Amino acid sequence: MADGEDDSSSNLSVSLPRQTLIRGKKRKITLHSMVLRRRNSGQADPAEPPTVQTSTPVSSSVSCLQAVPLQTDITDMAARKRYELRRRRSLQQSEGDGCIMSSSMVATTDERSIGLLRKRIKGDLLTEAQSSLDLPIERYLSDSSIDVLPDEIFMKIYSFLYEGDLLTCSAVSRRFYRLSNDLNLWKILYQGVFEYRIPLYHPEPRKFEFREIGRWRDVVNPWKESFRQLRQGVHVRLGFAHIYEGHSGRKILHFKNLNDAIEHCEQLPSEVEKLVFLHEGMYTSTQLVVDTPLQIIGAGSSRNFQDSVIVDSNNGTTITFVEGSEYAYLGFCTVRYIEPPLDPVRVGNTQHLCSALVVNAFASPLIEHCSFSSTCSGGATVCVKHEGANPYIRNCSICGSDNVGIYITDNATGTYEDCEIARNTLAGVWVKNKANPYFRRCHIHDGRDVGVFTFEYGMGYFEKCDIHSNRISGIEVKNQANPTVVRCDIHHGQTGGIYIHEKGRGQFIENRIFSNQFAGIWITSQSDPTVRKNEIFSGQQGGVYVFGEGRGLIEQNNIYQNNLAGIQIRTGSDPIVRLNKIHSGYHGGIYVHEKGRGLIEENEVYGNALAGIWVTTGSCPILRKNRIHSGKQVGVYFYDNGHGLLEENDIFNHLYSGVQIRTGSNPKITRNKIWGGQNGGVLVYNCGKGVLEDNEIFDNAMAGVWIKTESNPVLRRNKIYDGRDGGICIFNKGRGLLEDNEIYRNAQAGVLISTDSNPILRRNRIYKGRAAGIEITNGATATLEGNHLFQNEFGGLCLASDVRPIMRDNLIYDNHNAVDRTIAKGYCLFKISSCTSFPMHDFYRCISCNTTDRNAICVNCIKSCHKGHNVEFVRHDRFFCDCGAGSLDRQCTLQSETRDNDTVYDSATPTESETT
């Protein structure tokens, strides 16, 4: 033995490293030792496939095995892992003896079967059987011919076996384990039984998920694992009983109809999973009532197989879940109720309201990937009722029914996710009688009634739902109902978006409400919702419409691009409108009319086509701390007896006046900033009234305040300054009380009173004007008491001919009297007036030059330019000299050229707004 080992080592040393030489030493092997090694090895671990196989002796007549070299490449054998087999020396002959073995050591039948088992690979040492060079390779392999069969033959055999047979084969050897776990084998078996195109993940009751092969973690064969998870289910498959019955390798129950399968499951022990696979087909049931944790799941091979698994009924509710079904499951099927033809005998009897699905008290099934429909003309397709009813319904479709889609009532709850509720004759969802469901990401559309109807104290939480194209409003809230609607899209309603009436309530937060035919939100008949942080836009009518004594909190919304007013308040309604942006509307911003009220504060109202805020017809809102700007007409418009409080607002940059008051309106306007108006600050006309106190009115293109056409406002403690025209203009029988105001730095007269007007001015300070302090002309008069007129350019008080005001205790001082000084220096008055102001002095007309009453000539031009002409004194009044302006045929000798620093501007009448 030693000599043989030395020779072998020397031969191997040429091509192998030392370590390989040590492992590859030859050893003699006896049949006896092989048997003992096999016996000691025990059962092979099926987790790892072998790299080397052993053979079992088939005959006891062999007397001697001669050692010959194995016909295998030594280098290749050394590269692979080897078995480490230990010899029991007590049972082996010495190396010098022959190879004769006792017949008592011949391998038994059990030992032969063990010979096919695979061994765990150990280390890198060669086994004795592999390292022995005494046994011919042909003789060695011929001892177990099954090992030389190719995998294809086994796979062909396995393709005729069932899952039980494959599990048995997998325990035989590592090779059998590997082959019997082939993915394709189990896929074919799986799809033959369950029909699913993708393996179904079912780790626990009520959890079913189709997972692609690559998404199964730590699972080698997903088809086999899914088969294991679903093995306890029973099957209902029309015409395919032969697949499930009569096979020793398969223990799967099959039933001809659903009722029998359910009865079988109800008799199972509580610890056994109750699972029914309902395969493609139409199953007519007789009112299935589930009161156990039964699981019914559809099965099929098509992509949308749930549409082909149909359960229907025509003599009562199709499926009812009652108490005891807390852990029940229904999935991947279609459930219908089909109303039977009308029975003439039963005409006039009470109508029976049946549903496709009913969930009763204390039932909480999980229902997913199902379709429900009903042709019953009353009731609902899905009905969830009574306290404790709490289903979890997701990814379901309730479409095309002749009644309500989902009806939740009587303290029922439930979670409804990712469902489609569409094309139903009545409302998509009814919530009533303190029911409080949770809807998330549902698609509720194209109903022939309202989308979601909550009434009679119904509640509910609706999140991220898409509600659109319903014939009436998207959501209706009525009779003390109080839902919460968050981050939903509510659009293209054929009437309105959200309709809240008859003391309805609710919270509507962060929704997008757009493109509805009528108002985005209607609030009426003493309803009191909270509308916060929504986007309300592109409505065919208004944004938010509050009427019929409606209330509510409308806060932090973005309301824009609506065809009518962004917010409309009327008929005694009194909402709180706070912190909203109301802009870019094709009508007004906020419209308060017909005795509407409301607290409107801290809003930004801008860029609207008509008035920013309209107040009319007896309305009396409170408008406080708003920014109202950049409108294309008026900022705030009071007309037709509009009243209210306008307080601490910033009103600026409107194309018309900042504030207009007319036709009997009498608001209180206090502590506002009104500026940048292209048509004046405040316009009071057509018998308008109002109290304006403590306001700042400045930087307006025309007069700071206009009072005309018999209007009679009160202006008290206002600051009116830096106007590009006059401070206050009172025309056309205008009146008013002007008291304790400061009027300064205006381009024209501080106060201009004209055309039969008769105001009262008391204790005002009028100063630093670039024209006169007070000018009274055209038959007007006034009562002037205790006023201070100083530092005005043209003079403190200028009175036209025949003007006789009532004057008491006025102080007129430190005025520049530029008109008198210009006349005294012999200049033309046009020198100080240009075409933009109208100093008051004597003016004449020249008969010789054929001038008319419309032409005015200053006294110095009469003395110089028209010297010796036939002239006529007209009156003492406001004018600019036409001679100096170059509008007469004769060239002015006192004025070298016409200097025009603006267009001719005679305190032009402001633009008045018209109602629409």
Textual characterization of the structure:
By secondary structure, the chain is α/β, with parallel strands linked by helices. Among the domains are: 2-148, no CATH class; 152-231, no CATH class; 232-342 and 352-426, Pectate Lyase C-like, CATH 2.160.20. The protein is built from 18 helices and 75 strands. Helix 9 (163-170) packs antiparallel against helix 10. It is elongated, with a radius of gyration of 51 Å. Mean pLDDT is 85; it is low at 1-135 and 898-907. One of its GO terms (cellular component) is nucleus. Keywords: Metal-binding, Nucleus, Repeat, Ubl conjugation pathway, Zinc, Zinc-finger. It holds the Pfam family zf-UBR. Residues 826-897 form the UBR-type domain.
What is the residue-averaged pLDDT?
85
Count all strands and give the number.
Answer: 75
CATH level 1 class label of the domain at 232-342 and 352-426? Mainly Beta
Largest sheet: 25 strands, parallel
User: What oligomeric state do these chains adopt?
Assistant: single chain
Distance between the termini: 121 Å
User: Which percent bin holds the helix content?
Assistant: 10-25%
Strand content: 25-35%
Outline the low-pLDDT stretches. 1-135, 898-907
CATH superfamily placement of the domain at 232-342 and 352-426: Single-stranded right-handed beta-helix, Pectin lyase-like
**Alpha-carbon Rg, integer:** 51 Å
Backbone shape? elongated
